[in-house]
Amino acid sequence: xxxxxEESFLLQSxxxxxxxxxxxxxxxxxxxxxxxxxKEIATNHRWENLADIWLGGDHYKxxxxxxxxxxxxxxxxxxxxxxxFQAWAETVPYTLRNPIHHWTHLELRRYFGIxxxxxxxxxxxxxxxxxxxxxxxxxxxxGILDKFQVKMVGTTDDPADPxxxxxxxxxxxxxxxxxPTFRPxxxxxxxxxxxxxxxxxxxxxxxxxxxxHVSDLLQALQKRHDDFHAAGCRLSDHGLERCxxxxxxxxxxxxxxxxxxxxxxxxxxxxxxxxxFLMVFFGQxxxxxxxxxxxxxxxxxxxxxxxxxxLGPDAGFDTIGDERQGAALITYLGTLAQxxxxxQVILYNINPRDNYLFAxxxxxxxxxxxxxxxxxxxxxxxxxxxxxxxxxxxxxSSTGLLSRFVGMLTDSRSFLSFPRHEYFRRILCNLxxxxxxxxxxxxxxxxxxxxxxxxxxxNASRYFGF
Length: 466
Hints:
- Pathway: Carbohydrate metabolism; pentose and glucuronate interconversion.
- Keywords: Isomerase.
- By secondary structure, this protein is an alpha/beta fold.
- Helices cover about 50% and strands about 10% of the residues.
- The chain has 19 helices and nine strands.
- The chain has a four-stranded parallel β-sheet with strand order 4-5-8-9, covered by helices on one side. The chain has a three-stranded parallel β-sheet with strand order 1-2-3. Strands 6-7 form a two-stranded antiparallel sheet.
- Strand 2 (about 150-155), helix 9 (about 165-170) and strand 3 form a beta-alpha-beta unit.
- Helix 12 (about 250-260) packs across helix 13 (about 270-290).
């Protein structure tokens, strides 16, 4: 079989191939969680060259470049775009069995119509051909969103961020719905008073309020929550090593807030209590507005202090964490449920050992009000590849309802990442189709087609109310 064969790639049975090509392939995309730039969408951004669109900000590729012995100058440094692309071309042949090898060549085919394998021998030809394609009129942000039938994009936005780019997008001719996602993680940083107070100042400015007491903070966050809702936001998101599990009352939260505002040290226990206090508040607000709360749990971030000091965050120096997730998550979700304010929730784990923990936990908090109200989210970050996706799908299927799953997202900063939806759909169709052809699922193409269409797009559209 040819590499990345259009008909059979990742599809190992006749029913798998039929499900993908007749049902999944042309489903619209609801990319409800990503890190695409609202500014680039608002301005219908264009790219100068292949390195600009393909390598800039992509820490997946940066990690492999470093692992291949490439100097940082050719990754995030001052080397020219062509030199950086050459370093990537020299690295790609070493990425066999890493999902990046699949993604690299799917992206070359789907965006640029190039079916060559990237290597030093093909680098010049691919560079010239891809750059020629980038110069064409339709190769812009809006053109990409239209080409891949992206019905919705959920960006990731801090409460202190302005929403002017989203306003511009809303009044543009773009058919894709682009909505902000409320990500207030910087509100938890009371253990870093300098950064926390700088963020408070930004929040004060955008809300035109003074924030002197914890009650002022809640009022400002409520205002921004309202502003986000008016801009179309229907999801929140939190990226945490683990969910906080130490309850905190108003008095303790006020003491901790005051210490941070005065620049005094805050202990790890105090930070967890303050985070719990705010997370309960955010849960109440999400439930009141009918939002979905996403919990991305488990990474150890910025673990290499030398490189963090040189390059800052989001540069590829994060890893899978091994925090114990269960007890604290139960405390948090249980608190919201007890108070009658548990919103729709999607749980994402980054350590595969937690697959069954998270999948089973969703069943303990379903309340019969919304189908699939508590979701076990798709394979995330280090798990958004074939093995990780299959592990997630199997854990979900074994403990809950795969048929209610809201499906894949890119979680990406790159506009070249939409083929990851195709990758997921091929894996999903192969799982269902192969089990059908083995007699493990009913040979009912209509029922199978409904499951595939729902997981690819229908469930997301209904669940989020788009």
